[in-house]
Amino acid sequence: MAIKIITDSTCDIARETVDQFGISIVPAYVLFGEESFRQGIDINPTQFYARLQSSSRLPSTSQPTPGDFTGAMEPLISAGDQVVCITVARQLSGTYNSAAQAASQFDDGAVTVVDSGTASVGHMLQVIAAAEDAASDHATLDSVVSAARARAGRSYGFAMVDTLEYLQKGGRIGKAQAFMGSLMKVKPILKVADGEVLPVDRPRNVRRGLQRLEELVREQGPVSKLAVAYTTDVGPAEEMRSRLSDLADPENTYTLQIGSAIGTHVGPGAVAVSTLP
Predict the structure, then answer these.
(1) For residue 40, is it within any domain?
(2) Beta carbons within 10 angstroms of residue 175's beta carbon
């Protein structure tokens, strides 16, 4: 019997990490009109952003169904494993509810669902840490779940976006709505904490925005893991990783491209940073 980790594709975790730890990924959906695509299966980031930027109509997203989660959970439980499922923040998506409904179909204790309280890179770091915990020789279900919930309570992430248009149209703008109406030639910096999108700063350009992101991350104190993500331009993400290279060991530092589910809401030209203490 082992402890297995399930998550949803909005964490944007790399395939090699999934394979390394045997993590199960349940895909979110992106919809262009009547066409529905499963993230990472039917559409990759290159295809998605090309279509996003050429389409006259903003796509929408949909969480995995309870049946999607059941399909991932059932073979693990049938094999005698225990499951910890870590999802995108419940305030940002119905994914947690879908996972909880699926978990309710199994015996008590078979599946524990944890709300990451965040999205994308912050969510990904929590999933990796939980997978490392689960692989330990001394791991128990209680220890893995307790650590996952503690990390979720301390999680945060910062993102610099080119425009708030995508968050606004997608209904995920939250308190960052306060920035609307005063955004001529600025690069809004947002914070995701406790499932909310919060306004932080309005630097005038990308250069100043990257400086500000660095300051914000360093203010959080020592870190064990660091992740940087981007939507369409890897350059700012690589610069951000270089700026912060002293904070975490290379093997605990990740650069990734944000996929279609989160990319629908942050849009082209976004860069995000998250750490775990």
Answers:
(1) no
(2) 12
User: What pLDDT is stored for residue 168 in this prediction?
Assistant: 64
CATH number at residue 213: 3.30.1180.10
The length of the chain, given as a count of residues: 277
The β-bridge relationship of strands 157-160 and 271-276 is: antiparallel
Dihedral sign for Cα atoms in the order 11, 12, 13, 18: positive
The pLDDT value recorded for residue 95 is: 98
pLDDT at 197: 81
d(CA 220, CA 273): 12
Q: Which of 154, 176, 208 is the last residue of a domain?
A: 154
**CA–CA dist 69, 71 (Å, integer):** 5
CA distance 200 to 208: 14
pLDDT number for residue 181: 42
- The crossing angle, in degrees rounded to 10, of helices 234-243 and 206-218 is 40
> 26 with 64: CB under 8 angstroms?
yes
40, 79, 126, 230 from 143: Cα distances, Å:
31, 21, 14, 33
Q: Which residues of the chain have pLDDT under 70?
A: 167-185
- pTM passes above 0.85: yes
Please tell me the total count of domains within the chain: 2
Distances in Å between the Cα of 58 and the Cα atoms of 25, 145, 215, 236, 269 are: 25, 37, 33, 25, 16
Whether 172 and 265 have beta carbons less than 8 Å apart is answered as yes
Q: Which residues pair with 24 in a beta bridge?
A: 6
**Tokens 């990924």 — which residue?**
25
CATH number of the domain to which 9 belongs: 3.40.50.10170
